Amino acid sequence: MSDKLNGPKACGNWMIHEDVKYDRNNFWVKTEGRIAYIGLSDYGQWVIGDILYLDLVPQGAELLKGERFGSVESGKWVGNLMAPVSGHVREYNPAVVADPRVIQEDPYGKGWIMKVELESIEESETLLDHAAYAEFVKEQARDAA
Amino acid sequence: MDLYKLGMVSWWESQCYYHALAYLGREGIIICRPAEPYVCLGLHDDLEQEIDQEFCRAFGLPLFRRETGGGVVYLDSRQIFYQVVLRRDNPRLPIRRDKLFPAVLQPAIDIYRSFGLEADLAPPADIQVGGRKCSGNAAGDIGMACAYIGNLIMDFDFEAMSRVLKVATPAFRTCLWRVMQDNMLTLRDSVGEIDIPALESDLAKGFERQFGELNERTPDGEMRDMAETLKRKLTSRDWLEMPGRRTWLRRIKIAEGLFLQETRMGEPAPILALIRDGMIEAITIPGSPPRTLPKSEWQRLHGYGEQEFI
Predict the structure, then answer these.
(1) Among the listed residues B247, B268, B269, the one whose alpha carbon sits nearest the alpha carbon of residue B259
(2) ipTM
(3) CA distance B229 to chain A (A)
(4) A66 in contact with B at a CB cutoff of 8 Å?
(5) Predicted TM-score of the model (pTM)
(6) Residue A113, helix vs strand vs coil
């Protein structure tokens, strides 16, 4: 990814960046033309807990928005990873594949997960902006309390 | 919520019913135990790395890969299973799934305490008595539900467990067996005769305290059909051989925070280290009796730093 993201804002105990979009499964998506970088938000990594292992579809695989593209293990729990956009996986972040804990250390920077060639640019425009995502996080955190 | 107090079931039913409930989007609590022994892998375990398949074949041990976390375990009729399935839209299910382990594990903790054992939760999901593991637990999002599973260890076949896991040397196997014996506790260790039906009833009462009124029922056709279908998937070669988590040096988790692992030293029979909470607690040098070495001593003996050693 070209640069570390700008515009971090605190939302409760978590940071939210202004220049990316989000989905309700707590992935952030930063688009550069037809390419999108995807990672877990700060809140998303907190929800999962200590990430021990990621199982991801092979590089080149097709992603369908809302469909499973892998799974994550944290502590003794495993959960599914659902694609925030449709497209093809062009690259995984080797640092994250080698040690998924990088996601927790720097979710918006060194912890990006994958680079995707988008099926359509319009689809990513339907994602939440930072303000809407902040509301979503506040609502979720309120329910969790 | 529905309660399925099934008693003894076939080995595959002991895993497939909770998967079936989850895939059907139905909630329920299952209490059961398997009639036959088998080997159960966690979703991300690597079959090739973890399991001595030749041994399993020779002893007729079936293999099953569940859709929850945790590691490989040898299971038989001497463990009582509890399985709690909650739909994802159930407000009781926390966004952080690990937050529900204390509630799910409390009935088992109460059982141990009823026998005078000072059982406590070892986060995220072990139960320990005096530092020894006495219950293994895991969870996973399956279909539109989340399943929490665990067991009360009445007794445990340490020998079989140490044979099922693939290790490089007989010394590793002996050490594994000893470390499990030292760090696990079974009810048989401290309780004479165990009244299994009474224990299962007490467990059900414990779940009723946690989750409200339970309606006892038996698996219906829909649940049985789904379980049969899932059996084929979860025992298929493709599913079992799915690549999983691999480690460069063999590392086996014994209990929460406790690992037995090879080190880079001592080829061709590597020195084994017992790691507790990130610190080396003991080492075993092949051909020598196991011993506990203070960190300063093994550093002096071997001239290695901890990272290099491991």
Answers:
(1) B247
(2) 0.89
(3) 21
(4) no
(5) 0.91
(6) coil
